[in-house]
Amino acid sequence: MIEITSVEEFKTYKSTSGYFIITDTTGRKLHSNRCTFVDLKHFSEKVIGNESKNGKYFFTDDFFEAREYPKVKKCEACRRLL
Ligand SMILES: [Zn+2]
User: Fold this and answer.
1) What would the mean pLDDT of 61-74 be, rounded to a whole number?
2) Predicted model pTM
3) Closest C-alpha to 72, from 82, 12, 80
4) Which of 25, 36, 38, 75 is the least buried, fewest Cβ under 10 Å from its Cβ?
């Protein structure tokens, strides 16, 4: 699993088949790369604008590794894609 820290990385992994974990003050969510919540604007606000203080983005192409992330929950919006 890798942490995504730049817009270029975000764009690369968004277009790669796999799984995003987005952490923030409300919890840790597991998303498909195709989920509408995996969004460049939100990424830019959280990670670039707010310097990851309240949220981080991770990517893995391994579903089981994603599921093993501590306290992660499946996103309600994209769980049919997971
Ligand atoms: Zn989602």
Assistant:
1) 97
2) 0.94
3) 82
4) 25
Instruction: Find the 51 Cα to ligand 1 centroid distance in Å.
Output: 22
List the structure tokens of 8. Answer: 């270029």
CA of 74 to the centre of ligand 1 (A): 7
**Residues 38-53: b if buried by 16+ CB within 10 A, e if exposed:** beeeebeebbeeeeee
The answer to whether 3 and 13 are in contact (CB under 8 A) is no
Tell me how long the chain is: 82
Provide the pLDDT for residue 76: 96
Cα–ligand 1 centroid distance for 22 (angstroms): 9
pLDDT at 54 over 90: no
Q: How far apart are CA 35 and CA 33, in angstroms?
A: 6
